[in-house]
Amino acid sequence: MTSPTPPCAPEDVRRVACVGAGVIGGGWVAHFLARGYDVTAWDPAPDAEPKLRRLVDAAWPALTRLGLAEGACANRLTVAATLQEAVADAQFVQESAPEKLELKRNLLRRLDAAAPAGVVIASSTSGYPMTDMQTEAADPGRLVVGHPFNPPYLIPLVEVVGGERTSAGTVAWASRFYEVAGKSVITMDREVPGFIANRLQEALWREALHMIANGEATVREIDASITEGPGLRWAFMGPMLTFALAGGEGGMAHMLDHFGPSLKSPWTRLEAPELDRKLYDAVVAGCDEAADGRTIADLVAERDRGVIDVLRATGRLPRQRTAGEAAE
Question: Which HAMAP family does the UniProt record give (predicted)?
Answer without folding.
Answer: L_carnitine_dehydrog
